[in-house]
Design brief:
Two copies of one chain form a homodimer.
Chain A (H helix, E strand, L loop, with lengths): L8 E6 L10 H8 L4 E7 L8 H6 L7 E2 L2 H6 L7 E4 L13 H9 L3 E4 L9 H10 L2 E4 L22 E7 L6 H14 L4 E4 L3 H6 L15 H16 L3 E5 L13 H5 L5 E6 L19 H10 L3 E7 L6 H14 L4 E2 L1 H4 L2 H12 L1
Helix pairs in contact in A: 4-5
């Protein structure tokens, strides 16, 4: 990937009024832990004065929210070199309301890092501001040129590690967070595990191996995924490689995930589900219904892979509703069901050891 | 799509010794019928002096094969304005052996049309030759910029036509040809049918609606597909829209097809299969086995779509082997099985009328 900052680099993370929403998942990922960026401050006029972690999930993390860079710097705080756009806007485009803050950062000579599909470096006004102020624009999703892309070769079948995919029944359902929890828990338990990022937040968190799935030309998705896994295997010789899923197998807005099972040879799957949702995210008006866990497990089995655990996201349910669903689902399935945010994932480490590594 | 020639434009089609091979599928498509290009001559040193159709499938089509443009023009034949690269080279890149012929065409002021991933317009030597000779380079697979791409919206659910996908168990298995046969047969039988192209050959054949699946950024595949189908529905109000499949659902080099069922809302599928193949194309050394027809039908059913007919490609089998397989498969399935090249597809028109349109 392009333009790696010295790691970890101090950053201001901009969320434009969305810090408490799923749209701010890039910021949330940075607050939960990043080897690439260390958030000094979150910039969000709506939540100024609070702790960013407390706004996100009720747990303070010592990162303050300020309305603007000017206010943050006016109090004599350090000037971070990086300004990270921490929100994934609907449609992948930059709302006009964000421009003043980005122009301000560029005028101060900062490097603006953005994971939107809309490429800020191609925007004449922003590019001019970068030149004038000495700042830079880094577009994480800028597509790689074809000459730098790799076709699938089958080298995946020669690696030493076992590959596990963390898929989900929907977008924005917690796949990356569960994948990160599993990665941490495996390493704490003495399993040499690595994690492959597949989205812009994973890149921002500083994982060394991965690619940005949705900004890759379709013909090269399998090859880039294989290349990331094989490079990880060769460089680190892990026992286990966990692959962050993207999207969902049945999401009509852009089905994803079979590449991880087939091109990435993930024969074992951890499946993340949000039982409080009835339709795919942002498709409430269309009424496109989410599958049940059993339907998704059957689809995964039809591809020749096997779900070894189900993980639950409690969004939209209170804890008693979630627990009731959890108990009911567990009674129907012969694989473990856990709530990672409540239970952690230690139980799944044993499952991976028994079902995947033995 | 960019740079539409006046239709149909006279063209020389270049196959570089591969006219009899599957790699020449772009040329084969043009010989079978194109609204965009009319092949005057095929350029192929290996088959010079023969009829191109006869080399392709034993049926002469009145298009001669010459070794070079120089020989063709030296006999006083007309100078076509277009030079079409009629082969899909392995890896999507241009072999060095092709450069002299392309440079010659550019020196003569011709427009070179190419569907490879490697973009000829970005090649300094070829670009310089185009400038010097007054020729042009048109790269069909040049990715569209993000600003011209479309996300999926769900507008697919509001169209008037029924959508049928022509999927296959492998790449290069005859999906486009079967799709074209079905389109022709439906219209002959009085069904107003349209066809959506999804590959570079379909573009070259001049279908007005479609996009190039494999050269599209992954996040926009569903939206571009939906956009092509909706535009077709709005412009022509057909009863039936047939969508050419790409790749195969289980091909590890790049699984494809669920987008057609989900983003394109194709609830009915015609499934093309080559029983003479045991592994995916070009994966003989890896031994990645093709699914059986029944396994693929089960996977399609797991997505909520239904196979309404199976079509067979006899590659690698003699007619008695193919007929034996055909009879055996038909005895196990309750949907019709046909060999389009032997039987035509008239029987499938009745199936579409009964199962899809009624």
């Amino acid at each position: 990937m392009m333009d790696l900052p010295p790691i970890p680099a101090a950053a201001a993370v901009f969320t434009n009024g969305l810090l408490d929403r799923d749209f701010a998942k890039t910021c949330h990922g940075l607050l939960r832990g990043s080897a690439r960026f260390r958030p000094l401050v979150v910039l969000d006029r709506k939540f100024a004065g609070r702790d960013a972690g407390e706004v996100m999930d009720g747990r303070p993390r010592g990162v303050p929210v300020y309305a603007t860079l000017e206010e943050w710097l006016g109090e004599g705080n350090p000037n971070p070199s990086y300004f990270v756009v921490g929100v994934a806007f609907s449609g992948g485009r930059l709302p006009a309301s964000c421009r003043p803050d980005i122009l301000d950062a560029l005028a101060r000579g900062m490097t603006v890092v953005c994971g939107l599909h809309q490429l800020l470096g191609d925007d004449p006004e922003l590019a001019a501001a970068a030149r004038a102020g000495g700042g830079r624009l880094v577009d994480i999703r800028r597509p790689k040129p074809v000459a730098h892309l790799r076709f699938w070769t089958g080298s995946i079948y020669g690696i030493g590690a076992q590959v596990v995919g963390v898929l989900g029944t929907d977008c924005a359902v917690g796949k990356r967070t569960t994948c990160r929890f599993l990665w941490e828990a495996c390493n704490q338990a003495g399993i040499r595990a690595e994690m492959i990022y597949t989205g812009q937040t994973g890149w921002m968190q500083g994982y060394p191996f991965g690619f940005i799935f949705d900004a890759t030309l379709n013909d090269f998705v399998g090859g880039e995924l294989e290349g990331a896994i094989v490079a990880c295997d060769q460089a680190t010789s892990p026992e286990l490689i966990l692959v962050e899923g993207q999207g969902a197998l049945r999401n009509p807005s852009g089905p994803c995930g079979s590449e991880i099972m087939l091109s990435g040879n993930a024969r074992h799957i951890v499946l993340q589900h949000a039982p409080g949702r009835s339709t795919f995210v942002d498709q409430e008006a269309l009424g496109t219904r989410l599958p049940t866990v059993e339907q998704e497990m059957a689809l995964i089995a039809a591809y020749g892979s096997r779900v070894v655990a189900v993980t639950l996201n409690g969004e939209g349910m209170d804890s008693s509703q979630l627990d009731a669903y959890h108990n009911d689902l567990q009674s129907r399935l012969d694989v473990p069901v856990v709530q990672p945010l409540r239970d952690g994932v230690a139980r799944l480490v044993d499952v991976l050891r028994t079902e995947v590594l033995s």
